[in-house]
């Protein structure tokens, strides 16, 4: 049986460089594959005084990118769970007879 593997990580390329993220003061938890969209969004927010009806296009693009990353991670986790379930079924098939019998009235 061939070993099944799940490719970990994102398929999206990292567009913003580390230097760009440092210069634009992107917080470390937000330095992901969508940071290149967060930089112009934060600049827009500052220039527009964080008005909620401004910067809608930038915000939508950033939130869509983050959503796609989350969905990709969820699919990877689902594949990992399926592979582990298959491995448990294969390992459990040979150990069907318990070594210690259970009492009749259990």
TrEMBL record:
Pfam families found in the cross-reference section: NDUF_B7
Domain of life, per lineage: Eukaryota
InterPro entries referenced in this protein's UniProt entry, alphabetically: NDUB7 (IPR008698)
Transmembrane segments: none
Membrane disposition: Peripheral membrane protein
Subcellular compartments: Mitochondrion inner membrane; Mitochondrion intermembrane space
GO cellular component annotations of the record: mitochondrial inner membrane; mitochondrial intermembrane space
Keywords tagged on the record: Disulfide bond, Electron transport, Membrane, Mitochondrion, Mitochondrion inner membrane, Respiratory chain, Transport
Protein function: Accessory subunit of the mitochondrial membrane respiratory chain NADH dehydrogenase (Complex I), that is believed not to be involved in catalysis. Complex I functions in the transfer of electrons from NADH to the respiratory chain. The immediate electron acceptor for the enzyme is believed to be ubiquinone.
Family stated for the protein in its record: Belongs to the complex I NDUFB7 subunit family.
Name under which the protein is recorded: NADH dehydrogenase [ubiquinone] 1 beta subcomplex subunit 7
């Amino acid at each position: 049986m061939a070993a099944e593997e799940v490719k970990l990580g994102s398929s999206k390329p990292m567009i913003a460089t580390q230097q760009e993220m440092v210069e634009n003061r992107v917080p470390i938890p937000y330095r992901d594959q969508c940071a290149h969209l967060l930089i112009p969004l934060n600049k827009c927010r500052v220039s527009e005084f964080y008005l909620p009806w401004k910067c809608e296009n930038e915000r939508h693009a950033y939130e869509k990118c983050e959503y796609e990353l989350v969905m990709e991670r969820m699919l990877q986790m689902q594949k990992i769970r399926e592979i582990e379930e298959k491995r448990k079924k294969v390992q459990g098939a040979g150990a069907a007879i318990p070594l210690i019998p259970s009492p009749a009235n259990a």
